[in-house]
Amino acid sequence: MTLWLVRAGPNGEGEDWALEEGMAVIGWQEMPNLSAFADRDALRTELAKHYPAKSPAALTNWAGQLYTFAARMQIGDLVALPLKARSAVAIGKVEGDYIYQSQNPDFRHVRKVKWLAEFARTAFDQDLLYSLGAFMTVCQIQRGNAEARVQAMLSGSAAPLAPVPADDPDPVKPDPERQGRDMITALITERFKTHDLERLVEGILKVQGYQVHRTRPGADGGVDLLAGRGPLGFDAPRLAVQVKSSKDAADVKVVRELQGVLQDFGAEHGLFISWGGFNKAVYAEERKRFFNIRLWDADLLVDALLDCYDRLSPELQSELPLKRIWTVVPETDQS
Q: 314: which residues sit within 8 A by CB, 6+ positions away?
């Protein structure tokens, strides 16, 4: 059994469809049925016809990914789908051979997959996140006994320790932006445990223009922070904020509880921050509460942090020392 990374488009455009339909899906919609090509060389020749502007190296890389998806993946293998829409990774098991959907112009190249679970990115060790952050659409994830560790996560047991030797290079090319964000997430996990995460959220809300009051631990009535605009915090929008710092995904019950106490605190809106993300039921209900509740997982909290980092207090900046860098974006390995 092998663990494969299979993305659903560069911007996650196929994620919802893949999860709802029980499929792994890739791009390259201009390509015909991949089963018609005997090997990578034949695929590369066909790719050159449809993507003449691409470099020889890119075409060779793409041919390898397409051949992997169509021929190397086996029924029973595991698939990891890092999600763009939320800070989570879906894990599934391959249940069918490659299928070419000629009548579906958006999702032509697919495989039947039974999606088993979603895990917040914060549930994965840093070395696994490094591999899951590969630029490529399709590749094998094997460094650091990755398959056994993901299987352990699926079974609910502790993942086996798998220290990665310094001389064990990862065969995949990581996305430096995703790698950097995961490093920031890991640093927040280390330095802002339990109620300290509330302190970080408080700092972010203050630079966004809110007056913030922190409730007493243990007697918060389901609310950790109260925030409002104006000199005294009396002006709208008034927020009731719940901060959940554990790695466990929040369920619908706790989100509904925040909705239920808004009136008790005189708040028009609620902000629920769950470092471990939210389960599927919460996301399914999120649209119904769009004008009342906002949900932040780890990625959205990092977005808010980066948006205002230069204006954070010197104390918070010293605890989270970050530096903005610029780098050249390589030719994409995705289509």
A: none
